[in-house]
Amino acid sequence: MDSTITIPRFQNSGLLKKENKVFQLEISNQTWKINSLTNVDLDRDFYTIDSSLIDNGNIFCLATEDEILRLEKDNYLKLLNLNNFTDTSPAFRANLQVSIKGGGFSSYQSEYPFRMVTSKGSILSPLSSLLNKEADENIIFFKNIYELPIQEEFGAFFVNLKTKKVLKKVKVVTNFLNEIRVENEFISPEVFLFTDKYIGIPIHCSMKNNHISLEHTHPPHEYILSQDRFKIVSMLKKEFSEIIN
Amino acid sequence: MKSLIKKFARSDFGVSLRNNFGVRPSPISTNIKFKFASISDAFLWRTDNDYKTTFKYTDILGLFYKIENSSVELLFYTKDNSFIKKIIVNQLNYSNELLINKDLLDGIEGYGTFYIFHRNDNNSKDDLVITNQCYVGFSYKGSLSSFAHGNTYVRFQSLDGKHNGSDMVKSSFSNNLYRIQNSFVNFTKSELFFVNPTSKKIYFSIGAAKHTLEENCSILIDISGKDDITIISRCMFLRPIIFNYKDDFLDVYHG
Known about the structure:
The structure holds two protein chains of two kinds.
Chain A: E1 2-8, E2 21-28, E3 31-36, E4 41-43, E5 46-50, E6 59-63, H1 65-68, H2 70-73, E7 95-99, E8 105-109, H3 114-117, E9 124-126, E10 137-144, E11 153-160, E12 165-173, E13 176-181, E14 191-195, E15 201-208, E16 211-216, H4 229-244
Antiparallel strand pairs in A: 1-5, 1-7, 2-3, 2-6, 4-5, 7-8, 9-14, 10-13, 10-15, 11-12, 11-14, 15-16
Chain B: H1 2-10, H2 12-21, E1 36-40, E2 43-46, E3 51-58, H3 60-65, E4 71-78, E5 83-89, E6 95-100, E7 111-119, E8 128-131, E9 135-140, E10 146-149, E11 155-158, E12 164-166, E13 171-179, E14 189-195, E15 202-206, E16 209-213, E17 218-222, E18 230-235, E19 241-246, E20 249-254
Parallel strand pairs in B: 1-8
Antiparallel strand pairs in B: 1-11, 2-7, 3-6, 3-9, 4-5, 4-7, 9-10, 11-12, 13-18, 14-17, 14-19, 15-16, 15-18, 19-20
């Protein structure tokens, strides 16, 4: 498989910031190491990053050279919100396209909101909403980015809400794109993915006959607009937390 | 005083002033008239050119509020906003799936929109407003479905189905520019799907091509050969669903 990330240096309102460059960040010796991507393709205001630069453990950010230097102040020990260029409505889109060689391709809106970088917690994602029992293979790619340069293990669980049973437990790692294979028997309306310590974005991937589909599920609070929405979601997550414990 | 200003800024009139004078504009307003409501996107269905559509949705009332025996109502329309049919689903799982093909839509081969509204008559809460953003998958020539999630808020109904409304997406006096943040190079064909999320006729342009859409009508536009797309409209949230093709392979996402 091949991956390509396309990052615009403009907002969807048309505002262009030519000083914006793409930097690659990875953990090295318990600090954040910055790589300036001087040779990345820039074509009509789009930076294109190909598979040779993409790894499960690295991330990319859009910033000016002055902004990226701010990480030095904390001795590269913590990620910082370098700018608000990508805080737009409608949401900013950095496109990750995954292709099967000689086959299909699928895109996913791959930016990771900074407010999630500073948070711990748990995520809840239904398995059958996007995965497909008819597919040859179903995988959840679970991406976590945490502000500290650590790779700490935590748990991801497949939980049946009706029977209140844990069906599967896997270890996942912070600051990494984790790959969780999903067996067909778990793709059922009452089965959910739940994590116990850190949040992240679950990207659901199905493949069949050289075709591929990739999409993320919504965070649960997006289903509710009432004022008590965080309380309602918190109560549901508490139910899952009690099951896994 | 501060809370009064906040209240005014969030009112319909306040939002309209903010949008027209460009002060903290709000493309979508969630001010709705009643406290027990279900909000829906205008989802796309396709049965043209050997397409099948799969709709996946959550029983929000069952999952989050433990309300049993609720139902959902699905309303289907043509691209010209003519009503086709209503489907009521009474038996809900936490996650549910509906295949939309020509058979379901009485033989119609084409495209259009549909809405989902949750139904429940017994409300004991003070405030219960939900929205099902859902996931819609498109299968082309029998391929694996390519899924995209819901995009915006278009219509709302009270949970008992007695009241309804629309126009959550706002317009402004001046034009808004929306440049799609992805390149269209390297595809054999590309299409954009637009729906008018408002109850008024809207005008929009893509380069030199001008388009109009009546209330809640929808359109598929072939943009093959163009590299970079900018949409200009007074409608403040006109974000298309994108279909990119490489021969018989398909990728669908919201722009």
